[in-house]
């Protein structure tokens, strides 16, 4: 790997892990020293991260981590409602013996996501879903879902800040097992239906609800103030 590629992987990991917070200015000189590279490969890495929507660069060469927004969270869920069920349905139709073995293996490795999960915990869930959409054998679909997953991890972390109930964890586990069973049985319709329900109840969907509530609160306070002034 080149220095720019190394810097890209390390900075991207810090952004997705939450070490570099949404909206935070990236201290380029200090970060370059920490990574053991000059600012030139770091800038190259930041430009690459900008194309992925994880970093913003301005005309003054300042860089900051892209903020979490209701619009992006909603966009991600809207696209996933279409693509994830499509991938699951195709996986049920097209999976090979090797695909199914990997899906079962990654399902067995899944660990519940609770508050502030580590990279390894998030990776178990990604590997499971990657195994499913890779089994679709549709390269455009695989590439699209890979890109969506990169951006969605930050919203999953936001949703996990409020914690999860045991019923949430049980439902997610049941959905994972139902997906494995449907794909193994070659039942495309059931795999599609279960995956749609899984997306609708996902951490990404919870993030949309949280951001919608946060956006509505200032307006509600303003309205209460107007009513109070009229009293």
TrEMBL record:
Question: Domain of life here?
Answer: Bacteria
MF annotations from Gene Ontology: DNA binding; DNA-binding transcription factor activity
Keyword Transcription regulation found = yes
- Which SMART domains would you find in this protein's record? FCD, HTH_GNTR
Q: Provide an example Pfam family for this protein.
A: FCD
What residues does the HTH gntR-type domain cover? 1-68
Output the PROSITE patterns linked to this UniProt entry: HTH_GNTR
Q: Which InterPro entries match?
A: GntR_C, TF_FadR/GntR_C, Tscrpt_reg_HTH_GntR, WH-like_DNA-bd_sf, WH_DNA-bd_sf
List UniProt keywords, sorted A-Z.
DNA-binding, Transcription, Transcription regulation
State the name under which the record lists this protein: DNA-binding GntR family transcriptional regulator
Which organism is this protein's natural source? Kribbella jejuensis
